[in-house]
Amino acid sequence: MNDSGDSESNEGGRTDGTDAGDRLGGPRYWVLLQVNRWVFTGAVLTVVFLVLVAASRLGLTPLRLIIEDQNGLEYLFSAFIGAIITGTSIVVTINQLVLSQELGAVGQQRERMAEAMDFRQSVEDAIEEDASPPEPAAFLFELVEGVQNRARELEAEMETERDEELRAKVADYVEDVTGNARSVKEGLRESQFGTFAVIWHALNFNYSRKIYDARQIRADHADALSADAEEKLDRTIETLKLFGPAREHFKTLYFQWELINLSRALLYISVPALTVVAIMLMYVDGRALPGTFLGIDNLVWVTSVGFVIGISPFVVFITYILRIATVAKRTLAMGPFILRESERDEDLG
């Protein structure tokens, strides 16, 4: 969205075309967006396990005493059964509701196909290609390259411009566009849809700011722009405007892909989690597993493991939703609107 979550700015402009506030770099976005969801889940569960084990060394009431006197295991683990079953059922149901949007009569499917082909034709006309690639990463690659080419045509048109201020503004703008496009293309070149890489690199192309900057140049120098230069600027804007719908389309497909993965992950992990919870309820009490390991009661080790496995479906759900929510937040506004904090000019108030 990056969320995950990249550029350095200087006095004369952005070196790679990404606004300071539009970046997806840093450890926060790396964790929220790029880390493998199973690795993220494992890390969270490991932290919870270590905290539970460490708590037994704080001088609190011994776990074995709580289990013997208050039947603590039953209170702790019986709630997991209903929570796991109910939570998994709800998530799978929501997933099916989302995927039901893909179902429809043949007329609706033909209309969707026609709209998709119309959009593809618009992109091909804008980037001057006979046939655009069918694979998402390659399609976005060609579209970004088309934006880059339009910007270079604009720069070439301005070589004979006498207005030094206008020429400098256009040069900075073209450097911004081409620098950002170059870094995004490099990432898209090896990306495969189904991984987060395609969406990650698409998020790093800040087309909204580029549309705004181009329109601002046209508004500030309408009298100085030649007819050919204005045409080149308009072509750049029109090509940029195609990137928004393309990114949103692939983002929607990715969300559906991730929801399917989430449902499958929950189904895979729920049965083992329920099995472990049942074992804890059926066979473990205050007299089980006497002795210690590394100075810690064996019952603490086993109960901590059981608790971590019991909450694992919930943690899997959190890790997937965190990425989806982060991307959604970063792409709430499509078009020339910037909702996040960004580099401020005097004209942005």
From TrEMBL:
<keyword id="KW-0472">Membrane</keyword>
<protein>
    <submittedName>
        <fullName>Uncharacterized protein</fullName>
    </submittedName>
</protein>
<dbReference type="InterPro" id="IPR058278">
    <property type="entry name" value="DUF7972"/>
</dbReference>
<keyword id="KW-0812">Transmembrane</keyword>
<keyword id="KW-1133">Transmembrane helix</keyword>
<feature type="coiled-coil region">
    <location>
        <begin position="137"/>
        <end position="171"/>
    </location>
</feature>
<feature type="compositionally biased region" description="Basic and acidic residues">
    <location>
        <begin position="11"/>
        <end position="21"/>
    </location>
</feature>
<feature type="transmembrane region" description="Helical">
    <location>
        <begin position="75"/>
        <end position="94"/>
    </location>
</feature>
<feature type="region of interest" description="Disordered">
    <location>
        <begin position="1"/>
        <end position="21"/>
    </location>
</feature>
<feature type="transmembrane region" description="Helical">
    <location>
        <begin position="299"/>
        <end position="322"/>
    </location>
</feature>
<feature type="transmembrane region" description="Helical">
    <location>
        <begin position="38"/>
        <end position="55"/>
    </location>
</feature>
<keyword id="KW-0175">Coiled coil</keyword>
<feature type="transmembrane region" description="Helical">
    <location>
        <begin position="265"/>
        <end position="284"/>
    </location>
</feature>
<dbReference type="Pfam" id="PF25927">
    <property type="entry name" value="DUF7972"/>
</dbReference>
